[in-house]
Amino acid sequence: MTVRDIIDYLDAELLFGDDELLDQEVQHACGSDMMSDVLAFVKDQAVLLTGLINTQAVRTAEMMDMKCIVLVRGKDPLENVIELARERDICVLKTEHTMFCACGILYKHGLRGGHSV
Amino acid sequence: MTLHYIVPGDDFTRAGEASGDLKRKMKKLGFPSDVIRKVSIALYEGEINMVIHAYGGEITAEISSSEIDLTLADTGPGIPDIEKAMQDGYSTATEQVRNLGFGAGMGLPNMKKYTDEFQIESEVGVGTTVRMKVYNHS
Ligand SMILES: Nc1ncnc2c1ncn2[C@@H]1O[C@H](COP(=O)(O)OP(=O)(O)OP(=O)(O)O)[C@@H](O)[C@H]1O
Ligand SMILES: [Mg+2]
User: Fold this and answer.
1) Could you tell me if the CB of B92 is within 6 A of ligand 1?
2) Could you confirm whether domain A3-108 is CATH 3.40.1390.20?
3) Would you list the DSSP string of chain A?
């Protein structure tokens, strides 16, 4: 699926992402509020679902070469988050779904988990 | 090439700037993406630790075509039991730090996992120094 599809499946609001970024293909995702849990699984995960709304969500995505962050439970990001995401070319979406439901919906549509090294 | 970074201890939002900068420089130098990723993650975990557990610190990164050497030194409180600190899931992070997205107790294990050489020295009341190497396979 593409980032654009994720917006559709999760009724998400687009907070940052241009046409080129939205057309990127994504196959693997990871969901956690603890960034070191995310950093423990490094195999080409492209999407980070999280309730964490500070800049470290973007930095974690950056280190992992992830393409898209989905903020769950309708939380708005703190200041500087969108700015940093723009500098790093990482899409940011926001959905009203909880972590559990957002992960479930994307899994149902074919998105899979990553693998540990 | 040798790079130096000062990691400010009082600004959590800036933690990760050094790792991001090194990552972009390695990309420009043409290192393989998996090598870059290992270096970025290991350094990022270390950078975060220096901010949440110490009072910031200093990073030295030596880049050559064969390997990347990272040294992270802080003058924080030190680690009383390194063996314990290296265990998956062990953390002394406060609730406040956990709310910032850290404190899973996976940082040091991740650093060890992603690097080819990993050494940590620490003295209570003096500080902690982490040395890591990632080999470039290309
Ligand atoms: N630079 C440091 N100075 C002092 N104590 C440290 C330092 N780095 C790590 N520690 C200690 O070692 C413990 C384990 O570190 P580790 O990075 O594995 O987990 P964490 O930082 O608590 O959580 P996580 O990295 O998963 O967000 C920390 O909770 C802390 O007590
Ligand atoms: Mg840590």
Assistant:
1) yes
2) yes
3) -BHHHHHHHTTPEEEE--HHHHT-B--EEEE-S-HHHHHT--S---EEEES--SHHHHHHHHHTT--EEEE-TTPPPPTTHHHHHHHTT-EEEE-SS-HHHHHHHHHHTT-EE----
